[in-house]
Amino acid sequence: MPSSAAVVTMPTGIEVGIGWRHPHYAQLLEQRPALDFLEVHSENFFAAGGAALAVLERGRSCYPVSLHGVGLSLGSAVGLDTWHLDQLAALVERIDPVRVSDHASFARGGFSGGPVHAADLLPLPFTGEALDLLCANVQRVQDRLQRRFMVENLSAYLQWKTPPEQALTEPEFLNALARRTGCSLLVDVNNIYVNALNAQSAGQCADPLLACREWLSQIAPEAVAELHLAGHCRVSDGHGDIVIDDHGSRVCPEVWELYRHAIRCFGSVPTLMEWDTDIPTLDILLEEASRARAIARLERAA
Amino acid sequence: MSTLAAQQQALLEALFAWPRQDAVRALDGYASGVGNPPDRGLKVYQANGHLLAERALRAAYPVLVQLLGDESFADLARAFWHAEPPLRGDMAEWGGALADFLHGSEQLLDAPYVSDVARAEWALHQAATQADRDADLSTLALLTTEDPQTLMLDLASGLHTLASPWPLASLLLAHLEGQPTLAEVGAQLTKHVAQDLVIWRAGLQPRLRQALPGELALLHGLQSGRTLASAFDAAESLDFSQWLPLAVQTGLVLGASRMPSAPQ
After folding, report:
1. What are A132-159's pLDDT values in tens digits?
2. For residues A273 and A18, what is the distance between their CA atoms, to the nearest angstrom?
3. d(Cα A48, Cα B127) in Å, to the nearest integer?
4. pLDDT tens digits, residue range A218-264?
């Protein structure tokens, strides 16, 4: 087990971490900036051994680690992949993470006679049927890992056609998931804003910021265990226009504003700064993390 | 099939079926896209899949990228994505069938060695993530005190051997390490030089080299659990006194041990 004396944290009352990606592996271990946790993608460390796992173990000796999955496919109608769950359980045993999470999404399903995995975060319909299945799968994960799991909301680029009488709102869906399974919620503030911007383009949302504040206000505060912040981009090309959650830029002013609202709603929950494409220098990522810490501190003081 | 399963299958077919016009039309009954126009959202997922496919295969097949060129490799990744979709949620596990996929390609008839290159690169890719093993070189003293018929050799993590009718080791080393030169490899290809290959992991680093004469037979025997004496009997052309120091120095042999049933 890592020595707690070696952990480099900021005693400020709010835990702030960064997504630790390959370009920063060596630099972060060398500089050891003051951070409260590192987040890594679980699937990148499923190997039985090798260089990547050795780096993660070194990181774990300096910082608490949050394992964030992108491939468990919690909402899959064909069920969870036992192999995937076994790999995750082995990694959890090895790393003893501070939190373990994945998304309210699916990727695994039937194609050409057998299950395939789309390696993406595909949306679920917000229906009772999907909720029942998601609850059963999350419960299975918690039983296997013997710990509370955390589930994140998505940015979605497709909407399921659901009869109005069967449709739940996304906050209703997530609150029910947390209530029924005891799991916690990971609220990605940028994802909510991306969805609202795309809804605005489709004529379904007059005021994206207002819609996001209402979304956040409807989430059960006691269920929220982590917040995510990231950048997004607007794409206009030969196929049309859309806003994409690409985690490839600084957090925009509107998402910072929503983060303030989230802290007011949920209190000082741990916050992660994500950056996964066009990854900047470590200094820039740390600047963004410092800004999140400062905002959260101000909101707490207010 | 439940409504949810039908919805999910329809989306997966819209992402993986090729050509996909019918699958996309079928999805229209279940979902609408986000963006302007509405099918813009579906294209995000389609493009993500192609991008992930190319990124995952580039990581596993750096020599193949150089042999085929960026554009052809991207086309290959897209075609393979649709022909052999991932089965698991760990993309590092996806791509092992690429060698067989290339073997059947009519477009690569003029480069018949690429499927062997792919097989070797996949073995290197897998070697990088095998369980770590520690060396205990003090146990090699058993080689001087015990009967080889009672001894086994402990071999490196990720050990893999390949017999090829092509200059496989030269092809890989020329592109990964710059030696031999590409001109020398070209001459070996023209002469149909055959090379066997040994792949293993030294510490955390995957390694490869051309196999010594008889080495594959010895390694096959040792990997299948045979004693040192028995495996060596099958490797008639191998000079053991040359091989062992090389294998120890490069981390291919990690130690020696008595057969479990051997008397202590």
Report:
1. 999 999 999 999 999 999 999 999 999 9
2. 5
3. 10
4. 999 999 999 999 999 999 988 888 999 999 999 999 999 999 999 99
Could you tell me if B83 and B186 lie in one domain? no
B202 contact A CB<8A: no
Closest CA to A75 of B249, B5, B196: B5
Q: Does A107 sit within 8 Å of B40, measured CB to CB?
A: no
What pTM was estimated for this model as a whole? 0.94
Cα–Cα distance for residue pair B26/B30, rounded to 1 Å: 8
DSSP B18: S
Write the residue in A71, A159, A240 that is nearest to B40 by C-beta. A240
- Greatest distance between any 2 Cα atoms in chain B: 78
In a shared domain, residues B186 and B241:
yes
The model's pLDDT over B110-169, given as tens digits with 9 standing for 90+, comes to: 899 999 999 999 999 999 999 999 999 999 999 999 999 999 999 999 999 999 999 999
Among residues B52, B81, B99, which one ends one of the domains? B99
What does the alpha-carbon distance between residue B110 and residue B118 come to, in Å, rounded to a whole number?
16
| Residues B167, B213 within the same domain | yes
Of B36, B39, B44, the CB nearest to A201: B36
Token pair of A172 as six digits: 């209703």
Q: How far is CA A102 from CA A32, A70, A98, A125, in A?
A: 27, 6, 14, 17
Residues of A in contact with B131 (CB under 8 A): 48-49
CATH value at residue A265:
3.20.20.150
Total of domains in chain B: 2
B149: domain range? 137-258
When mean pLDDT is compared across A251-255, B21-25, B103-107, B178-182, the lowest value belongs to B21-25
Question: What are the pLDDT digits (tens) for A68-80?
Answer: 999 999 999 999 9
Domain span holding position A166: 4-301
**DSSP states of chain A as a string?**
---GGG-----SSS-EEEE--GGGHHHHHHH----SEEEEEGGGG-SSSSHHHHHHHHHHTTS-EEEE-S---TT-TT---HHHHHHHHHHHHHH--SEEEEES-EEEEEETTEEEEEEEEE----SHHHHHHHHHHHHHHHHHHTS--EEE----SEEE---GGGPPPHHHHHHHHHHHH--EEEEEHHHHHHHHHHHHHTTS-S-HHHHHHHHHHHS-GGGEEEEEE---EEEEETTEEEEE----SPPPHHHHHHHHHHHHHH-S--EEE---SS---HHHHHHHHHHHHHHHHHHHH-
